[in-house]
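Late entry, evening session. Most of the bench is empty. Finally got around to the prediction I had been postponing all week. Sequence below, unchanged from the version circulated by S.P.
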Amino acid sequence: MDWLLIALAGLLGGMLNAVAGGGSFITLFALVFVGVPPLMANATGTAALLPGYLASAWRFRKEIEYPANLSLKTLCLIAIAGGCLGAAILLSTSEQVFAYLVPWLILLATLAFIAGPWLLKKRLANANLPRVNTVKPLTAMMILFIVCIYGGYFNGGLGIILLATFGLLGQTQLHGMNGLKNLLSALLTTIAVVIYALGNLIDGQYLLLLAIMAIIGGYLGAALAYRIPQSLLRGFIVLVGFAMSVGFFMR
């Protein structure tokens, strides 16, 4: 039953990441449910979903746009440095502290999942209006660095948090924002997973099955993306996020 649950979690997590995001909610819950400590479950789920990030980054490589006049080199350095620091903080966090933080982190990611599309929609609605980008490059770098630290530490809801951040920094072209989101997510997740592995935080027992099923789920999710209403998917993810948050709070 444990292996079946992990397989289903990988499949569903990969599908959700392909069409709406939030797959890490599912993998974290499944791993904790089968007995993996929360700290290791977070790292293992992130590692299992990494191939999907890499594939998405490659798919959108030609559509990347950069906010606040920042260069590609600068953004990559921010992602790598933030991912390193976030992963290092995770390694220094005790199991008890992380278990206490998990419901708050899930709640934060769920709220960002709710607010992010609203912020993007509002920003995109004003895309054709004259505007002046008042965000200075240094300010944009600091904001993105904080978000990348979060991604290296927890990763849950990272995609929608990055999209909302790009919108606040003045971007309005959704494909370009998606391209940059996938690139930064892939970079910071890759370096974070390397650090997780060096710190023995990845549970090898379930990693391969979870990763394979996530890849299959990502392929199926892409095929179903135009057949399932996104509002339905997002509602399901929000429901799961709140349910998991309440469950971990009670625990």
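Two things to note before I forget:
The mean pLDDT is 82.
The longest helix spans residues 95-125.
Will write this up properly tomorrow.
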